[in-house]
């Protein structure tokens, strides 16, 4: 992962920028900010530039207030990309994944390096490390930094960032992509007095009342179960979100509640956003939900966690899913 050529390019760079995909999640924020704190120790000028602000549920992650986001700081974000000598592209495999920041990213002349775990990486970086079999980009970042200088990894900030990314992208270590290395990294952190409990509390036990009311409504009123197919649906419209004074960010993790139910192995969450419907799929066992969204919903992701989108009404999407995906469902289980 860390070749002599890459090392030389990084050593030559005075200014390094770390980027991730739009709608940044725990893995995107964790990987970029872990890198930020690591290279800051090497006296490099560093910045994290993201397409959108850090979501509310990740406000506890170290450095969340340091992020330059393209959505609200377009001029500054563009200047960062223009001036960077080296740009890390973390947790995304295609320039389109950075949304409105794509043009500025592609125009940037600094050396670009991708570190990512999604399938089918596009050819837009000078160096590419793509490992779809790895459960999180944060796990890959740990290995990269360990090869660079392990002595600088075990700071409270870096461990919190990496653990947050691993925890969120593995569904709290539940997905099949988790391997021995995933647990080994957690073990190494514990050997350095890492407090994993506080990360769990901040991520999962910090709910505002309206979010809990929305979750209760979603499960009680919007849940649909197809037990013979081992699949369940949750859905929310933009009006329903508004009625609870919530945003899409407040629905993070809702899809996983379906997987806690007996008999459900595939969870699907539909949420209306702008002029389309976003969908999140999660699975346990040998389901390949990334193939579902790739085939029908212009999406992608991992075997057990994927996302896509649909232009139309919620009712039309559910009918489309039942008419097109259900007849082929067994082909995605192997």
- Roughly how many Å is the radius of gyration? 20 Å
**Major β-sheet, in short?**
6 strands, parallel
Record field, number of beta strands: 12
One letter per element, helices H and strands E, the order comes to HEHEEHEHEEHHHHHEEHHEEHEEH
Mean pLDDT: 95
Structural class: alpha/beta
Q: Strand percentage, roughly? A: 15-25%
Give the overall shape: globular
Précis, in short:
With 334 residues, the protein is α/β, with parallel strands linked by helices. Helices cover 40% and strands 18% of the residues.
Describe this structure in words.
By secondary structure, the chain is an alpha/beta fold. Helix content is 40%, strand content 18%. It has 13 helices and twelve strands. The protein has helices at 4-12, 26-40, 74-83, 102-107, 137-149, 156-169, 180-191, 196-204, 209-222, 238-243, 254-259, 289-296, 314-324; strands spanning 15-19, 45-50, 68-69, 86-90, 111-116, 127-130, 224-226, 231-236, 266-273, 276-283, 300-301, 305-310. It has a six-stranded parallel β-sheet with strand order 3-2-1-4-5-6, with helices on both faces. It has a six-stranded mixed β-sheet with strand order 7-8-9-10-12-11. The longest helix is centred in the first third of the chain and has 15 residues, at 26-40. It starts with a helix and ends in a 10-residue tail after the last helix. The mean pLDDT is 95.
Element layout with pairings:
Blueprint: H1 4-12, E1 15-19, H2 26-40, E2 45-50, E3 68-69, H3 74-83, E4 86-90, H4 102-107, E5 111-116, E6 127-130, H5 137-149, H6 156-169, H7 180-191, H8 196-204, H9 209-222, E7 224-226, E8 231-236, H10 238-243, H11 254-259, E9 266-273, E10 276-283, H12 289-296, E11 300-301, E12 305-310, H13 314-324
Parallel strand pairs: 1-2, 1-4, 2-3, 4-5, 5-6, 8-9
Antiparallel strand pairs: 7-8, 9-10, 10-12, 11-12
Helix pairs in contact: 2-5, 2-6, 5-6
């Amino acid at each position: 992962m860390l070749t002599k050529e890459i090392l030389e390019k990084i050593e030559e760079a005075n200014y390094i920028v770390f980027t991730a995909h739009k709608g940044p999640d725990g893995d995107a924020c964790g990987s970029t900010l872990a890198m930020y704190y690591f290279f800051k120790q090497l006296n490099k000028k560093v910045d994290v530039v993201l397409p959108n602000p850090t979501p509310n549920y990740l406000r506890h992650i170290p450095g969340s207030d340091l992020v330059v986001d393209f959505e609200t700081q377009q001029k500054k974000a563009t200047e960062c990309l223009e001036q960077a000598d080296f740009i890390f592209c973390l947790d995304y495999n295609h320039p389109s994944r950075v949304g409105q920041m794509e043009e500025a990213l592609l125009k940037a002349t600094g050396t670009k390096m991708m570190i990512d775990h999604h399938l089918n990486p596009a050819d837009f970086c000078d160096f590419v490390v793509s490992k779809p079999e790895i459960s999180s980009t944060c796990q890959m970042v740990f290995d990269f930094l360990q090869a660079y200088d392990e002595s600088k990894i075990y700071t409270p900030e870096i461990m919190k960032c990496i653990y947050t990314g691993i925890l969120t992208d593995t569904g709290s270590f539940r997905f099949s992509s988790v391997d021995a290395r995933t647990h080994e990294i957690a073990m190494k952190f514990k050997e350095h007095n890492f407090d994993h409990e506080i990360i769990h509390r901040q991520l999962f036990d910090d709910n505002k009342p309206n979010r809990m009311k929305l979750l209760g409504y979603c499960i009680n009123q919007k849940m649909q179960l197809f037990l013979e197919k081992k699949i369940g649906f949750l859905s929310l419209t933009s009006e329903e979100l508004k009625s609870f004074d919530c945003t899409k960010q407040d629905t993070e993790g809702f899809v996983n509640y379906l997987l806690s139910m007996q008999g459900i192995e595939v969870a699907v969450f539909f949420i209306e956003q702008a002029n389309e419907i976003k969908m999140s799929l999660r699975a346990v066992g040998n389901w390949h939900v990334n193939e579902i969204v790739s085939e029908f919903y212009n999406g992608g992701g991992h075997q057990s966690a994927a996302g896509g989108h649909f232009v139309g009404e919620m009712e039309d999407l559910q009918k489309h899913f039942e008419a097109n995906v259900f007849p082929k469902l067994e082909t995605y289980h192997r």
